[in-house]
Design brief:
Dimeric_a/b-barrel; DNA-binding; eight-stranded antiparallel barrel; 26% strand; 341 residues; 10 strands
Length: 341
């Protein structure tokens, strides 16, 4: 996005609306925002072209039988960016970030087993590797960062709640992803707003069957839609990963408290010496310092805190577009997901 561009109220409302329902028709969003459908469509196209806006359809890893690992790699400066790009090109990674002066890479790996961890140590330039199993997600995934989701009022939010879902949550295996869903899910990972007709072509199903399957997956919470966009447009010019060690007896209490903080976009309990990790989004370094010293500093159960400034997000939730050519050891296609039964 050009530096001179500032998101106005309509832009912010559109992003908030997409967080509520990533597949909401433009006409429905327009009616809630009291603007024309053409205005919403034009703003959406502009934000896609200039701000990296993208809606992506994602499967809940727990519903798909996949583990989530946060992998931290330290690398020599000349290798760090190439390594981050190589990780980003893999289909089993998301949230690839360059941190700590550009010599640390942090990635989330979704896999039935951590095959990746046996490949990384043999990669030139890597000086250290640690892996942290994500035990519980307190904030993130289908829950939007509040900095992007505070434009619409309660009545508008109710009007934009998904309307095409079953009256009750789908139970049993019918609501879980299966190998037959992979063409549908692959298309939604690239673009969560793909029209039903295109999804029908991708799957070989009828549009009615696609719509019904989408509704089942969403109702079971196996499928959710996330929004990618440049967070600096919402005032988050300073970002950092926070690695905390919390006394086990107070871990859940502290994590739930952190999940209510407007400065945080991600909070998860993990294994390892740092058993709680968060992502902070702040306007500037002074605001981050104030948050660390006043809000986190007031929580006595946090025994240690490591702050790793994020320089760049190489990959967000969805796959890289367009797909980069694969090369090298780290770019071997991962094993197919082991879907839950």
């Amino acid at each position: 996005m050009k530096e001179s561009h500032v998101l106005d109220e309509i832009d912010r409302a559109l992003v908030h609306a997409l967080h509520l329902d990533g597949r909401a028709p433009f006409a429905r969003i327009a009616a809630v925002l009291d603007v024309s459908t053409q205005t919403v469509a034009r703003r959406y196209r502009k934000l896609r072209a200039e701000a990296g806006l993208r809606v992506v359809g994602l499967v809940d890893p727990a519903k798909a039988g996949l583990a989530q690992w946060m992998v931290r790699l330290s690398a020599v400066p000349r290798a760090a960016q190439d390594l981050a790009q190589a990780l980003a090109r893999r289909e089993d990674t998301s949230w690839v970030k360059l941190a700590s002066g550009g010599t640390e890479i942090v990635a989330i790996v979704h896999a039935p087993q951590t095959l990746l961890l046996r490949e990384i140590p043999r990669t030139a330039g890597v000086t250290a590797v640690s892996a942290h199993y994500v035990l519980h997600l307190y904030l993130g995934g289908p829950t939007a960062w509040r900095g992007r989701a505070r434009t619409l009022d309660a009545e508008q939010q109710r009007a934009l709640a998904p309307t095409d879902l079953p009256d009750r949550e789908v139970d049993g295996s019918r609501g879980l992803p299966s190998p037959a869903d992979e063409p549908l899910l692959a298309a939604l990972r690239r673009d969560g707003r793909v029209p039903l007709a295109e999804l029908a072509d991708a799957t070989g199903w009828s549009p009615a069957t696609v719509a019904r399957r989408l509704a089942e997956l969403r109702a079971s919470r196996a499928l959710f839609f996330d929004v990618e966009i440049d967070n600096t447009l919402f005032g988050a010019a300073t970002q950092a990963l926070l690695w905390m060690s919390v006394t086990p007896a107070h871990l859940d209490e502290v994590a739930r408290e952190l999940a209510r903080h407007d400065e945080l976009a991600f909070v998860a309990a993990t294994t390892g010496p740092s058993n709680l990790v968060a992502q902070a989004l702040c306007p500037d370094p002074a605001a981050l310092h104030h948050y660390l010293t006043h809000r986190l500093g007031a929580l006595e159960a946090i025994r240690t805190l490591e702050t790793a400034p994020v320089l760049r997000t190489v990959k967000a939730a969805g796959p890289l577009l367009p797909a980069a050519p694969r090369a090298g050891n780290l770019n071997r296609p991962p094993a197919p997901p082991s879907w839950g039964s």
